[in-house]
DNA sequence: CGCTCGGCCTAA
DNA sequence: TTAGTTAGGCCGAGCG
């Protein structure tokens, strides 16, 4: 479940990112509009419930344990009987992992000892939960077959490798008898480089369990001998593929896709009492890996099952100034909401509190006199609600571990919830050009001198992946256009964005030094092409858009970085600049080989170019009458290693310059701020930003810290004027702690 | 004072 | 066990 793995919330930088335990000493929020809405909601809820004969109160008297009978609506929908012989089982898979377990009778694969079993958790259209055990899939990798290797050698190779791996084991807790399940010969080509479209013999080596892949690879690479073949090193291929991923690729399963188990092709585990089932799911089934059907996420298979999402947040009674510790500080409140995927409102809002608590609008409250009962009861609540997804702000790093540790400290029995806690390119070497007798028109040389064969000779793997991604995005965009349901629209928009990001990231991982598919030639060639294209664009634009060609001004490329160029076209209005910019982009594109093209993106007016990777400007994209925003790149205003005083000052000065067109006003403002600083009229919190400062302030805890910090800041500050450049104004502050150097400099020539 | 280096953060 | 990249600006520290 990806949602659970991630840290929630915005990045705030540094160690203080970790969620703080909250103190319950003060209530700072005043009644808000949100609360009024909740009150309204509550009234409606009351009315609805009284019709069903529900209790009207929302605060449950102290001491009551949560009971599943409290509200039957909270339970997952009843699961109708399932007949594997006549019923097809279809569910959306939301989590996938594997474990080592005993083979199940009637399922394929090894029978003896522990075998790897893939486990999928999912939800049906009717909201019933499914745990599906998938049998018979084993991990494998490849090595090139040595010269002279024939089928008759397979058995000997397998036997030798098997005993080598067995001998290599330090202990054999699982009593593994067989390590190498199979070896067969297949025709394959290495993805790296072009080999003249001639697949070679590779040995596909299937192991009994995933953790045997690494030792087998190591033994083969170190030098392996069998039969009459000399000791040699075998290079392993695809030995670094995670078992889950291997399974997903081979069975066409992708994240959160829909899975179909055809009738008659799976078994239902029924006897709960005999311990057959291992999960709390309503249906627990076994299936052979080659019998499950995975549906590509297109059309109706893009829908989302009615997943149950629990979000929660805990409050601890911390000691003053100390981060709460589960061994000491009690959990005093757990607020939980549960919502079904696709519904607008949560159908459960529950607050579990220690001691009494005022009524909270919109929520039901359970009060406890003992913390132990609170935790026990909440665990029971979660089991009843049976969420598919558990989420919350940083719960993975704070709330969940805290609850588990606290429950252990208090010796709460049955707290341990059954959380799923989730336990190329052508695929050329220069020396090969002669060998494979490639004609010059068969390959191209990139700006970095690397050679790639053209797709007419052999289409690479990466172009294939990219084409698939881009065409899938095209389809998603087309569906988005005709879709009217706003919710489905969101899903489709997310899908097309994800596909775009995936396509862009293809380049990224070829540059990774340690990764699944490193290829420096590709990443360097990509950047090389980028540089070349910028250069070409500059030549083209500056040669065509000139006064002598009848244009208003000589165009000038003012700035460019990696994949973009800023052109000063010299026309009077933003609208004219947009028109000319679009025309120029199309014209330049016509000089590039498709699908490469130059796109018009935006107009900056005015544009303050401070340095490479540092500029600001008013950003116009669609409407020439109004700028969308003041865009700042790389400047103090967007950097987090400056105190707010600096960012605010620079921001105001930029507004003066760009929006008000008043550079003198900017200087005046900067002088005023410096003067305020000198006269100690600046709020110290404007200077507090660095981690060190924040920490120091916490240590002092209280006003005393502010006084001390203020004294030190004023004591250490100094100002300097630059005599050489009247437009450069500089003041440095507190060199010891806060990086608070103010700098404001511009040159009229830099303003476009 | 000027230079280089490492640390940090951003652009793309 | 776990991992996208390079280019580049600015600051502070250390050195001669």
Description:
It is found in: Nucleus. InterPro entries: DNA-dir_DNA_pol_B (IPR006172), DNA-dir_DNA_pol_B_CS (IPR017964), DNA-dir_DNA_pol_B_exonuc (IPR006133), DNA-dir_DNA_pol_B_multi_dom (IPR006134), DNA/RNA_pol_sf (IPR043502), DNA_pol_B_thumb (IPR042087), DNA_pol_palm_dom_sf (IPR023211), DNA_pol_type-B (IPR050240). Belongs to the DNA polymerase type-B family. Keywords: 4Fe-4S, DNA excision, DNA replication, DNA-binding, DNA-directed DNA polymerase, Exonuclease, Hydrolase, Iron, Iron-sulfur, Metal-binding, Nuclease, Nucleotidyltransferase, Nucleus, Transferase, Zinc, Zinc-finger. The protein is α+β, with helices and mostly antiparallel strands and 752 residues long. The protein has five domains: 155 residues, 2-Layer Sandwich (Nucleotidyltransferase, domain 5); 101 residues, Beta Barrel (OB fold (Dihydrolipoamide Acetyltransferase, E2P)); 107 residues, Alpha-Beta Plaits (2-Layer Sandwich), CATH 3.30.70; 90 residues, Helix Hairpins, CATH 1.10.287.690; 112 residues, no CATH class. 31% of the residues lie in helices and 20% in strands. A seven-stranded mixed beta sheet has the order 9-10-4-3-2-8-11. It has a six-stranded mixed beta sheet with strand order 1-15-14-13-12-16. Helix 10 packs across helix 11 and helix 13 packs antiparallel against helix 14. It is globular and about 85 Å long. The structure holds a DNA duplex (12 and 16 nucleotides).
């Amino acid at each position: 479940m990806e949602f659970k793995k991630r840290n929630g919330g915005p990045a705030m930088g540094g160690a203080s990112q970790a969620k703080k335990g909250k103190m319950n000493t003060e209530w700072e929020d005043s009644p808000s509009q949100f609360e009024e809405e909740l009150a309204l909601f509550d009234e409606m809820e009351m009315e609805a419930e009284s019709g069903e004969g529900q209790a009207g109160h929302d605060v449950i008297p102290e001491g009551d344990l949560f009971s599943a009978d409290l509200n039957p609506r909270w339970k997952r929908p009843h699961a109708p009987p399932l007949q594997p012989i006549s019923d097809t089982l279809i569910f959306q898979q939301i989590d996938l992992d594997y474990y080592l377990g005993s083979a199940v009778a009637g399922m394929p694969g090894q029978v003896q000892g522990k075998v790897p079993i893939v486990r999928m958790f999912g939800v049906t259209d009717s909201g019933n939960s499914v745990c599906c055990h998938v049998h018979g899939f084993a991990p494998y990798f490849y090595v090139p077959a040595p010269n002279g290797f024939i089928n008759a050698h397979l058995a000997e190779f397998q036997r030798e490798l098997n005993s080598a791996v067995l001998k290599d084991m330090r202990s054999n807790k699982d009593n593994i008898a067989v390590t190498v399940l199979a070896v067969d010969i297949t025709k394959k080509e290495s993805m790296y480089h072009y080999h003249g479209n001639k697949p070679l013999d590779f040995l596909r080596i299937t192991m009994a369990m995933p953790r045997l892949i690494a030792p087998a690879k190591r033994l083969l690479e170190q030098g392996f001998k069998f039969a009459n073949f000399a000791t040699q090193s075998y290079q392993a291929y695809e030995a670094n593929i995670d078992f889950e991923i291997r399974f997903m690729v081979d069975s066409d399963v992708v994240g959160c896709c829909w899975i179909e188990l055809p009738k008659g092709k799976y078994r239902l585990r029924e006897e709960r009492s005999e311990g057959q089932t291992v999960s709390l799911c309503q249906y627990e089934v076994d299936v052979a890996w080659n019998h499950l059907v995975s549906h590509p996420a297109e059309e109706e298979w893009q829908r989302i099952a009615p997943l149950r999402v629990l979000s929660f947040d805990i409050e601890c009674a911390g000691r003053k100034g100390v981060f709460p510790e589960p061994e000491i500080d009690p959990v005093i409140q757990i607020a939980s909401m549960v919502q079904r995927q696709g519904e607008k409102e949560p159908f459960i809002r529950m607050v579990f509190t220690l001691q009494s608590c005022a009524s909270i609008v919109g929520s039901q409250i359970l009060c406890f006199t003992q913390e132990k009962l609170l935790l026990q009861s909440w665990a029971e609540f979660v089991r009843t609600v049976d969420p598919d997804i558990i989420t919350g702000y940083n719960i993975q790093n704070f709330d969940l571990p805290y609850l588990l540790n606290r429950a252990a400290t208090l010796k709460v029995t049955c707290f341990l919830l059954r959380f799923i806690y989730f336990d190329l390119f052508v695929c050329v070497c220069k020396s090969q050009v002669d060998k494979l007798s490639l004609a010059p028109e068969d390959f191209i040389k990139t700006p970095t001198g690397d050679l790639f064969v053209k797709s007419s000779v052999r289409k690479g793997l990466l172009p294939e992946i990219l084409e698939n991604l881009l065409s899938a995005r095209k389809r998603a965009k087309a569906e988005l256009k005709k879709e009217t349901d706003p919710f489905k629209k969101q899903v489709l928009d997310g899908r097309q964005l994800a596909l775009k990001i995936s396509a862009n990231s293809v380049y990224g991982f070829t540059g990774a030094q340690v990764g699944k598919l490193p290829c420096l030639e590709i990443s360097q060639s990509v950047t090389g092409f980028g540089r070349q294209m910028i250069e070409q664009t500059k030549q083209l634009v500056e040669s065509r858009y000139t006064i002598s060609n009848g244009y208003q001004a000589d165009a000038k490329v003012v700035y460019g970085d990696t994949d973009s160029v800023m052109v000063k076209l010299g026309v009077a209005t933003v609208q004219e600049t947009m028109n000319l910019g679009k025309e120029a982009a199309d014209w330049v594109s016509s000089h590039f080989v498709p699908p490469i093209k130059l796109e018009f993106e935006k107009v900056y007016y005015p544009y303050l170019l401070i340095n490479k990777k540092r500029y600001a400007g008013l950003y116009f994209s669609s409407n020439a009458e109004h700028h969308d925003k003041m865009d700042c790149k790389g400047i103090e205003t967007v950097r987090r290693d400056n105190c707010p005083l600096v960012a605010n000052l620079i921001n105001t000065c930029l507004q003066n310059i760009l929006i008000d067109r008043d550079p003198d006003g900017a200087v005046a403002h900067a002088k005023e701020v410096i003067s305020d600083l000198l006269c100690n009229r600046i709020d110290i919190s404007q200077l507090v930003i660095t981690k060190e400062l924040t920490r120091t302030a916490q240590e002092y805890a209280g006003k005393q810290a502010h006084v001390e910090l203020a004294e030190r800041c004023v004591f250490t500050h100094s100002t300097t004027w630059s005599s050489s450049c009247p437009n450069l104004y500089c003041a440095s502050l507190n060199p010891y702690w806060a990086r608070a150097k103010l700098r404001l400099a511009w040159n009229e020539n830099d303003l476009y």
